[in-house]
């Protein structure tokens, strides 16, 4: 039986697509234009070709910042995803505790990024901050301004506090969508809690976990506001991620050509990693689905 597809609905979203394309393509074309030219001011530009891209890829500064970005994102994913799953599994599924837990989990997500950075900047200060003063009183030599390890720990804990709720809410949505018949059958078979999680809950959460991993990777890899407010990229360059280095290059040094080239490479790296994540996880999901059908 041949199906007739009605594509009239596309006309409803066409204005939005045109607006988004217009607002995205023009800035992108401007960046591409700057990336192949050089300027000495007075709106005079000179053709540079691929010089800025070659200089960028041969720069230790770029690769060091990229390495810091990857290390930070890997740490964030390894902590926030399992922690989010654990919290979602232990949240109530019925009763008055459900709305309370959902609201409580949503609160960190409502705080703007710059406010989060300011909160943790004050929170970690040794003189007036609750965390810094408490650690100092306990004899712990904590100072995120001058100590590299303390700066990294502060940024990681701050990101966990801010964004684990997103993973929790996504996992919780996947868990509550599982029909009760699965759990009743598992109870009759005498399945352990680990077996229920391994064979029922985790497979049903794979799609929301894919979304959670993609969102958290992209956001952690593009992080800028929080570390800029808390550490400013220091101490030294220890927390200077690609986003901070890009802003320093574009605004601080006014090197528009190299900054434009870096922004394009940065964009392509994010696009590549996101595509790899999505391809690997969806292909694994597809193989699992086929195995289940068999």
UniProtKB/TrEMBL annotation:
Domain of life, source organism: Bacteria
Coiled-coil residue spans: none
InterPro entries noted in UniProt: MetI-like, MetI-like_sf, Sugar_ABC_transporter
Membrane spanning residue stretches: 12-36, 70-89, 101-123, 160-183, 208-225, 259-280
Pfam families on file: BPD_transp_1
Membrane topology per record: Multi-pass membrane protein
Family assignment from sequence similarity: Belongs to the binding-protein-dependent transport system permease family.
Full protein name: Sugar ABC transporter permease
